[in-house]
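Suppose a colleague, Dr. K., hands you the sequence of a protein chain of 457 amino acids and asks what its three-dimensional shape might be. Before reaching for any lab equipment, you can write down a predicted structure in token form. Begin with the sequence itself:
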Amino acid sequence: MLDHRLSLAVNGREHLLTSKLIAYQLPESGVDDGGPYRADTWTAAILGLGYVGLPTALALHARCPRVIGIDISEDRLRDIAKADVDLADLDRKRLDAALNDGSFELTMDPAAISLADTVIICVPTPITTEHSPDLSALRGACASVVANARAGQTIILTSTTYVGTTRELLTEPLEKRGLRVGEDVFVAFSPERIDPGNPDHVLRETPRVVGGVTAECRSRAAWVIGHLTDVVYLVSSPEAAEATKLYENVFRAVSLALANEFADACRVLGLDPIEVTLAAGTKPYGFLGAFPGPGVGGHCIPCDPHYLLWQLGKRGRSSPLIEQAMRSIQSRPDQVVKRAEETLAADGRVLAGARVVVVGVSYKAGVRDLRESPAVPLIDGLTRLGADVSYFDPLIPTLSLSHGRDLHTVQLPRGEDFDLAVVHTVHPDVDYTWVRDCPRVLDATYRFEHAPHRVVV
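The predicted structure, expressed as tokens, is then:
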């Protein structure tokens, strides 16, 4: 195992707490490495081949002799087979190799679950419009696993969810089928930690947490997860592992809400929030910063805290700080719209009838992912107030808005064609020099350097 320093802000004394976590040591590699399966014959099935499942499957390539990728979408499987998917460079090379050597099989048939020694569930867990958990994909996936499970398998749930899900959707149904968990089958929860589009956080170097229903479940699951990452920590139960992921993303949500609010304060005081954040980050203890932006998107931060709030609400409890943070995150695109109005008003213009281009619409730089992107409510808000809105994003050719309306990216934008550019997402290796020719630039990223006359949110 590699040395790993805990990321805590407890005045430099986190080393006093390391005994709370058990570090798992993967046995030395070989034909028979001491794990539950023979290293040269074991098979892994990955259920769900999205932004988490596909990189997980590819990370097992060359470490697992046979990987079966299962997804309910025929279109998704076809895109993977053609390598027409959004992947980091390393994973794209892995996909090419896996498709060429035949070790990566793609299927829609859930019966393939029974062929695997270990099953890793990686399906999305979004929220409804009422901010309650949408468990349709997760329930369906777990039901398929239970129906096709066989003795000897290790089953690992990685999808972020509420505390108790692993037992509710896997352990209890498996027991009802007559499969004793901890003896016949082995069930654990290990939250995914994939950071799409960030080359600094590769899966192999990102520590993972594993909580098993029994000690043997935990050990077997850790052996599997140890093939994905060099650092595995063991916790006492699936519930502890489930809560771990919720806390990670609740912390991030609160931090981002605070970063946006502090950026607003900096604007009032005439200060650069990026400079102040970086300066505060020089303190080696007691500070963990975040950068402000136009809002929060993706499959984690805008959704996962609601799983905790929903579960607490069912028990008659509340969490005012988290609730306020989520309200702040949800309202951020409206604040950007208001600043767009103010930016135009400073030149005696109004938003109604103004030609506005939104620069970048994916939720994050470098990814073709629109899930929960703040750009969608931002464009809806600008349009609602009468603006003539376009967007430029070479990664997103078409954007579906509310009421069934579609927009298409501007192919060759010219700054002089617009009254205002709102910078939302800046992708690497994309030419944005045209933005400087736009008479007004509202920088919602706070870090756009291509237009010296920009103002920030």
